[in-house]
Amino acid sequence: MIGVLLIHGFTGGPHELAPLIERLKETTDWLIEVPTLPGHGLDLDLLPYTHEEWIKTVETAYQKLNQEVDRLYIVGFSMGGMLAGYLAGKYGADKLVMLSPSRKYLNLIKLTKEVTQLVKDRVVGELEENFTYKHYHHKQGKIPLKAYLEFVKCVKVTEPYLKEIKNPTLVLQGMEDGLVPYQTTHALDKEIPIDIDVIYYLDSKHMICLGDDQEVVVGSVLDYLLKAPHERKEKEANTT
């Protein structure tokens, strides 16, 4: 039996990975585990929680699922990508997928561009159609400074375990990511001691599973997980 542990990002929830979760359930009989990090989800309550509690949550989910399956795959988005790498490096995994992993913190230039677009859309009455707004507006005023500091601590704690990763690893990154620089992937390629597989999406932003490229992104992840363990893909650049 195969199990897949999926981990969402900072201030997010399982909804960030919904298309991938649905495809996995439709096309496989694998055990799927998608924990919600403390304080996260659609109703944010981040203030009481620390990065230690986020790490403990994914460790508990990993240990439970690992006892029930013969092979374990880990998929993480954004900060969840770093948590996934931490689990793979510390405990091991059969395959690892990192989606827009937050190895670096913020690309302020592109973030400013997205905020500027929000303002323009509000002026012309198109705010509800803005992709960024749809997926971030519920967070307005609900992310205390302490939570950001816990995020930074989480990245710092998980980063050293990247060099312990030994399993096949796929990284998917949008080159229009407004929150994490796409150059992050270059750093990962140096830190992870094996040859990782990388796919860049020229038009994708941070929410890589929910954007215009979601079908090809989900398909790429599924193809990677379905491959026999001994098969590896060459590094490639997606230019669509």
Automatic annotation (TrEMBL):
Active site (catalytic residues): S78 (nucleophile), D177 (charge relay system), H206 (charge relay system)
Signal peptide span: none
Domain Serine aminopeptidase S33: 51-209
GO molecular-function terms, A-Z: carboxylic ester hydrolase activity
Residues bound to substrate: F10, M79
Superkingdom: Bacteria
One GO cellular component, as annotated: membrane
Alphabetized UniProt keyword annotations: Hydrolase
PANTHER family: AB HYDROLASE SUPERFAMILY PROTEIN YCLE (PTHR43798:SF31), MONOACYLGLYCEROL LIPASE (PTHR43798)
Protein name: Carboxylesterase
